[in-house]
Design brief:
Blueprint: H1 4-14, E1 18-23, H2 29-35, E2 47-52, E3 58-62, E4 75-79, H3 82-92, E5 98-101, H4 117-125, E6 129-132, H5 134-142, H6 146-175, E7 180-181, H7 182-196, E8 198-199, E9 205-208, E10 226-227, E11 232-241, E12 249-256, H8 263-289, H9 295-308, E13 322-323, E14 350-353, E15 356-358, E16 363-365, E17 368-373, E18 376-379, E19 388-389
Parallel strand pairs: 1-5, 3-4, 5-6, 12-19
Antiparallel strand pairs: 1-2, 2-3, 7-10, 8-11, 9-11, 11-12, 13-14, 14-17, 15-16, 17-18
Helix pairs in contact: 1-5, 6-7, 8-9
Length: 390
């Protein structure tokens, strides 16, 4: 059930006059989750829900769908024509200047950029300043409670074990002079996930040689490569417990089929893991010292480390993404490349730290999940320190 007072407290903290929720044809899943209402039927008319910084909320619905927001508190206003809708909005928002909506200037945070441009134009035509709700969404969508953290850690223990099984399959085949297809290792991971009660929306990634240099490679029956002695292998796998409100665990490890990886692979591995560790240390020290640190700041740190080693052009994606009930969650991303995520990293949130260097012959990524608490930031699972010898 929606906690109006908590939302109003956060609006006070953000210095925003109110939060205007809007939907038509289920365009905004964030609105339904935060308001705690269902979106499982035909939504053919626009509705608005206004939560002011002070005072009671207001529901604005079309007369033929006047039941739409019955589960929510607040005064009910109905409209039929577009003129009535405009007049009602103007009245409801009277006295408010800054209006938070699921909007992001320049679409810098695509996850929350859900309100159409015409609706933003409508609000601006009423003399309102529309601001992004991204920080509000992070506060109400991305923070975990103790149960979710526990489920994340339980999923992590199971997924770590499945990763070990996949590496064991590769080791067994390649050490005996044989070989194994990438798709076989991926199928093993999917099979074990099903047996252990782990849900995943896609994946995993199992790539050897040049395929490991493709950040979003996925093996298929037709395109799967053979993994043999002397090959470098990257495995990226993610999943969550098949339980309500469970959250994802997402990791990437690398291995080499043989006793001694080539020197260049070891050098690139050291650069990537160094960037990972510097990013984690920067978050941890900022939280411990009470300093604000933004997602884009941490991306700069990891990216700067890799660029200083001469591989800046080979790090082609953001340093990390928010993790929640969706694999790409609603919180701050570690990103100043694909977007500029200026949201602060806040307590009770989790995100990946996964720098990478992608070259034509191989690619290295090292991914951990970082959880922020009031005491600092920590990796929630095992941290790879050396290339796995397969």
């Amino acid at each position: 059930m929606i906690n109006t007072q908590e939302i109003q407290d956060q609006l006070q903290a953000e210095g925003v006059d109110g939060w205007l929720f809007f939907d038509h044809h289920r365009r905004d899943p964030i609105a339904y989750r935060i308001l705690g209402i269902e979106a499982n039927d035909h939504i053919s008319r626009r509705w608005y829900y206004w939560i002011p910084r002070e005072g009671d909320p207001v529901r604005l619905v079309h007369k033929i769908e006047d039941f739409r927001l019955n589960a929510l508190p607040g005064e009910l206003t109905k409209y039929s024509s577009w003129r009535e809708q405009r007049a009602a909005l103007e009245k409801i928002l009277d006295g408010a200047n800054t209006i938070a909506m699921q909007y992001s200037p320049d679409c810098m945070i695509p996850h929350v950029s859900l309100v159409d441009g015409g609706t933003v134009d409508l609000l601006r035509g009423l003399g309102k300043t529309v601001v992004s709700s991204a920080a509000l969404v992070q506060h109400f969508e991305a923070r975990w409670d103790a149960e979710q953290l526990s489920m994340h850690e339980e999923a992590g223990r199971l997924i770590d074990g499945v990763l070990d099984e996949a590496f064991a399959l590769i080791r067994e085949r390649t050490r005996s002079g044989g070989r194994v297809k990438e798709i076989e290792a991926a199928d093993l991971i999917r099979k074990r996930f099903s047996e252990l009660g782990i849900f995943t929306d896609s994946g995993p990634i199992v790539g050897c040689g040049p395929h490991s240099g493709d950040p979003h490679y996925g093996p298929t029956e037709e395109g799967s490569a053979w993994i043999s002695s002397g090959d470098f292998v990257l495995i990226d796998l993610w999943g969550k417990l098949q339980k309500p409100r469970s959250v994802y665990y997402d990791i990437t490890w690398t291995g080499f089929c043989g006793d001694q990886p080539p020197e260049r692979i070891q050098q690139v591995f050291a650069i990537v893991t160094g960037a990972r560790d510097r990013a984690l240390e920067a978050v941890d020290s900022a939280i411990r010292e009470g300093r604000t640190v933004r997602g884009c700041d941490i991306d700069d740190i990891a990216r700067g480390h890799i660029a200083a080693a001469g591989y800046g052009d080979a790090f082609v994606h953001r340093t990390g993404h928010s993790i929640g009930e969706d694999i790409h969650g609603a919180g701050a991303n570690l990103d100043n490349l694909e977007t500029q995520d200026e949201r602060p990293l806040i307590q009770r949130t989790c995100f990946s730290i996964e720098p990478g260097i992608y070259l034509p012959e191989f690619g290295v990524r090292s991914e951990i999940d970082c959880y922020v608490s009031e005491k600092g930031a920590r990796a929630t699972g095992r941290v790879q320190r050396e290339i796995v010898q397969l």
